[in-house]
Amino acid sequence: MATGPDLAGRVALVTGASRGIGRAVALALAEAGADVAVNYRERAAEAEAAAAAIRGLGRRALAVAADVAEGAAVTAMMARIEAGLGPIDLLVNNAGIALRRDIEALTEAEFDRTLAVNLKSAWLCTQAVLPGMRARGWGRVVNISSGAARGSGVIGVHYNASKAGMEGLTRGYAARLVQAGITVNAVAPSLIETDMVRAGSEDYARKVPMGRLGTAEEVAQAVLMVAGNAFMTGQTVQVNGGMQFT
């Protein structure tokens, strides 16, 4: 009995996939057999490199630029992906920003932008892929949340709010799609060795009971797990080295 998902013949979209967790997820999905669209906003060279790595695994890949916080850009992106790879079966909402701000320093524009990129983008992309998933009777949506959805976090209250909203979005969609062959789950990493964590001055590894930062590949393993499980929906899987238990 195979323990990993068989995604052969499936098309996946990973938003914010030019580097970090998104890139690791895109490669893991390709290793499981999926063709993958690599979304990015600014880092074209890195996105193209990720797409080339996916092709090196024998899968089709497309690097596609779009600000997924904007509806028109999402619509155009989806059209490009369908033309280049086919209808999207698996969506990973990973795009996000993490502006470190103290409460007093946070501006209205920064709050709005954080919610647009981290939360609104997940809604826009999910809305765009749902009609096709419904028609085919199969779909997987995985939202990349954060331990900040339930804990204090290290970025700021705007980031907390955006990730808590993403988990609410996850449960809401899951409840309404449970009989459509579509599962919706979240993966919530904490203190993963990415640019976001490296940008801080604190020794974050000391906060982790396991004694080290997590890796993007370990988060990707959790994404593969929920993507491959047809009986699991509306759940948040924490990847945090023992920092929280639920």
Fraction of residues in β-strands? 15-25%
Helicity, as a percent range: 40-55%
Q: Helix and strand string, N-terminal first?
A: EHEHEHEHEHEHHE
Cα end-to-end separation: 29 Å
Within the CATH hierarchy, at the fold level, what is the topology?
A: Rossmann fold
Low-confidence stretches: none
Please give the CATH class: Alpha Beta
CATH superfamily heading: NAD(P)-binding Rossmann-like Domain
Number of domains: 1
* Structural class label: alpha/beta
Could you give the topology of this structure?
Layout: E1 11-14, H1 20-31, E2 35-40, H2 44-56, E3 61-65, H3 71-84, E4 90-93, H4 108-136, E5 139-144, H5 157-177, E6 182-189, H6 195-198, H7 216-227, E7 236-239
Parallel strand pairs: 1-2, 1-4, 2-3, 4-5, 5-6, 6-7
InterPro entries: KR_dom, NAD(P)-bd_dom_sf, Sc_DH/Rdtase_CS, SDR, SDR_fam
Keywords: Oxidoreductase
Protein name: SDR family oxidoreductase
Task: Describe this structure as you would to a colleague.
Belongs to the short-chain dehydrogenases/reductases (SDR) family. InterPro entries: KR_dom, NAD(P)-bd_dom_sf, Sc_DH/Rdtase_CS, SDR, SDR_fam. This is SDR family oxidoreductase. Residues 10-195 form the Ketoreductase domain. A seven-stranded parallel sheet has the order 3-2-1-4-5-6-7, with helices on both faces. With 246 residues, it is an alpha/beta fold. The chain contains seven helices and seven strands, in the order βαβαβαβαβαβααβ. The chain has helices spanning 20-31, 44-56, 71-84, 108-136, 157-177, 195-198, 216-227, and strands spanning 11-14, 35-40, 61-65, 90-93, 139-144, 182-189, 236-239. It has a single domain (11-239), classed as Rossmann fold, CATH 3.40.50. Helix 1 links the parallel strand 1 (11-14) and strand 2 (35-40). It is globular and about 45 Å long.
